[in-house]
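Journal club side-thread
Mid-discussion, someone asked how the predicted structure for our own chain would compare to the paper's figures. Pasting it here so we can look after the session.
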Amino acid sequence: MSIIQAISPVDGRVLGDFEVSDAQSITEKMAAARLAADTWSRMPIKDRAVTLLPFSQLLMDNLDSICELIGLCTGKVRTEALLGEIYPLLDLLNYYQKHAKQILRYQGVPTSPFAFPGSTAGIARRPYGVVAVISPWNYPFQLSVAPILTALFAGNAVIFKVSELCLPVGQLIADLFDKLDLPSDLVQCVVGDAETGEQLIDAAPDLIFFIGGLHAGRAVMQRAARHPVPVILELGGKDPMLVFADAQLEKACAAALYGAFSNSGQVCVSVERLYVQQNCFDAFLVMLKAGAAQLKVGPDPYGDLGAMTSAAQIDVVQAQYQDAIDKGAKASGPLERQGNFLKPVVLWNVHHGMRVMREESFGPLLPVMAFTDESEALRLANDSEFGLNASIWSSNIELATRVASQLNVGNWAINDVIKNIGHPGLPFGGVKQSGFGRYHGAEGLRNFTYPVSGLTNRSRLPKEPNWFPYSEQGYQNFKGYMDFVYGTGSFIQRVKRNRPALDAFREYSTFDLAQRWQNLKLMLTWKRDY
């Protein structure tokens, strides 16, 4: 029996011992989840929503204890836990309570009365079955519970694995869902590291939802391809913030400090590249350095920056800092470390040849670079293998919107930072090396289902015109029909030149002449609209 001991990054205290799930237990959990999914998926969406509704009150009743545990496991301060881990879940729950039924409704699709006489068509959404959720250590509560809830609203069962750095949070999540009136084994947790994640994938769930680093995401894709299993990947970014000279500079500075240093920079959409227009660069840099110096870092749960969650990530941050200094960057100060606490640093005189401008930092480093005009700002912002989020700052909303429309990202915000990813109605996800697939919003909920298309033929005809036997005359008739529908000329012209073909199809109509003409008009409307 293998055990993982959970250690707090704040003070090194032991938070518990957790037994690692083995391959056999994961296989058993998968079998149980499939049975639970079968029961849950047949429940109407409105009933699933009612069953999940009490989860909001569970969160509200346990806010302080949840925030405290999250802080002990991740090192983040209480306010960050409250606003970053819990508030978005309440918003998401409320959104899906109101809209899930409408989002997943059956969707009728128009049919051509000539090509599909007497037929109706539509698309239904079905849950995948069992969703494997593999979540990261930076927001282990929110980034586990959000996809779990989304999967449940969509009708799936869930087996989830939190990071081995945050195992008490995983146990908390399992305990909270146990308090709901859910089918047995609908939500289950597995414990372990990357090897356990591989075993979970090898158990062949029906969908994998993964949030993590680029290299881990590639490994997940490769593993999933063996079975194969579809995946949704959110792989982090190197998000740019563009500040134009006409922006509210004091507000933009405060946003940059928050965007770069909230949760000690351990946010997938942290501001990791700050571009400031040249004619306000010097003044803006002075404000940045002054603001960074005032941030409170340490074990105070009500301070600004808490501890780094991962010691390995501290090594990454230190390596990027040293690389920048070695290549000529200037810094607001040394990268001071006390235990797992890092003092935030502003860097300037940076360029894209430095690691800090190209690789995800996931720590309290803020590199700042000048640009001259809109064209250069776009070139610099798009010069990255990542494409997750972006922030544009200007009093000229037309300019900012134009810039946003040309950024190679999955999401953007104008005169705001980070907060856009928490909007429950906006689908969130990346492009390029930041992953693919979306969660949140209507599209995010649909991504936890697959479409099933159906056609119902109510015609009483003895056979369809496209059935055997084939003939030369039949070929000519079909050519005429296609010219009538898709050819050039007016409606009357197409009728006149294809009348023999249209007459040949008369035997397939059970309608009188007036109805056939009405069908012609409906067909033309269908062609115009679709």
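Post-session note: Residues 23-235+443-452 form a domain with the Aldehyde Dehydrogenase; Chain A, domain 1 fold (CATH 3.40.605.10).
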